[in-house]
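Re: that chain you flagged

S.,

Sorry for the slow reply, it's been a week of failed gels. I finally had a moment to sit down with the sequence you sent. For the record, here it is as I used it:
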Amino acid sequence: MLGHPARFLWANMKILVIGASKGTGALCVAAALERGHSVTAFARTPDKIGMTHVNLKLVSGDFHNAESVAAAIPGHDAVIITASATSLQAFKENPNYFSMGTAHVIDALKKNKSARLIVLSAFGVGESRELAGWFLDKLVISFLLKLPFADHERQEAMVKASGLSWVIARPGRLTDGPARKMYQKEDGP
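Prediction finished late last night. Pasting the structure tokens below so you have them in one place:
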């Protein structure tokens, strides 16, 4: 779901990627560097990203610590949140995993007068749930992944109400394969 301006990222931006050490976050860092942006990779252990680049800065921090997030935000044109728990147990321990960290990011962005936020959510959240089908809706979203999906709902509501320029990405399935570059875009309010 696209929130505000269709041309969201311009050339030579300073981008902060939260949750950058592996998976989608690390791929996001690599793609941003490839496009000529300056990137700050923010993670508990950013060295896990395993890359170096003249325009890459590694910052150790905690998505769930307001001071840590606030210290990383200044000087960036956009923040991309890709942070996720490594196990379902993490959601049992903190059912507000996504929304808690996102609240810290939103607060810091507002204090720094920064306005661009991109959030990685999931297909099946919000209005995309009606497209999920019975199996995905009843077994996966409502049962197996109930806690993370409920928190993605809270996270998205916070982003939409933030007053910031935002984009919410809801991938249907993330794999380790090559990018297919097939996207569906919907403009929101």
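What I noticed first: Residues 146-161 form the longest helix (16 residues).

Talk soon,
D.
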